[in-house]
């Protein structure tokens, strides 16, 4: 059961990131489609109400309701290595987009990795921009690529560099 709650925590992060990056409020069905999580609409609703209780998202009174991120949510999306108690060799701060890539790799690229094109499709960014961010994350020892494949496949180097709530179910695999 613990694995399920870890996956749900990662999905909550994806929902929050999607809402922070969205220029307009979204319906549950749009959020479900945007995160490609393969979870039920009921689970998305549960996560959204949990995020609402924490003051990270707002719900409109429309039917169906539209969801948007609060101002407080934008500040929680940026990760800092210093927050997790490690000394952090680089001390770098991940941007919102880099955080999104990390979460997607934790969620979808655990086993075999993902290509830059697949990641770009999931985050809604160009392949060129996504690859630029991935190579930057690789220089900061956040991700690794299997460059022997064409195109390279990307994976998380280790989830130990990230706060517990962002580690997902792969934290015991490292």
TrEMBL record:
This is Z-binding domain-containing protein. PROSITE patterns: Z_BINDING. Residues 1-22 form the signal peptide. InterPro entries: WH-like_DNA-bd_sf, WH_DNA-bd_sf, Z_dom. Pfam families: z-alpha (PF02295). Residues 159-174 have a biased composition (Polar residues). Residues 155-174 are annotated as: Disordered. Gene3D superfamilies: Winged helix-like DNA-binding domain superfamily/Winged helix DNA-binding domain. One of its GO terms (molecular function) is RNA binding. Coiled coil: none annotated. The lineage of its organism: Eukaryota, Sar, Stramenopiles, Ochrophyta, Bacillariophyta. Keywords: RNA-binding, Signal. Residues 5-71 form the Z-binding domain. SMART domains: Zalpha.
């Amino acid at each position: 059961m613990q694995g399920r709650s870890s996956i749900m925590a990662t999905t909550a992060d994806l929902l929050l990131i999607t809402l922070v990056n969205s220029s307009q409020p979204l319906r549950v069905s749009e959020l479900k489609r945007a995160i490609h999580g393969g979870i039920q609409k009921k689970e998305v609703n549960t996560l959204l109400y949990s995020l609402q209780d924490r003051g990270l998202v707002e719900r409109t009174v429309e039917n169906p309701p539209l969801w948007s991120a609060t101002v407080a949510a934008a500040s929680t999306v940026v990760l800092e290595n210093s927050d997790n108690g490690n000394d952090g060799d680089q001390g770098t701060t991940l941007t919102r987009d880099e955080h999104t890539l990390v979460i997607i790799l934790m969620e979808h690229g655990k086993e075999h990795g993902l290509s830059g094109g697949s990641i770009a499709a999931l985050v809604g960014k160009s392949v060129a921009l996504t690859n630029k961010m991935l190579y930057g994350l690789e220089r900061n020892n956040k991700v690794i690529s299997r460059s022997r494949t064409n195109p390279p496949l990307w994976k998380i180097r280790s989830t130990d560099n990230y706060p517990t709530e962002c580690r997902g179910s792969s934290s015991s695999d490292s």
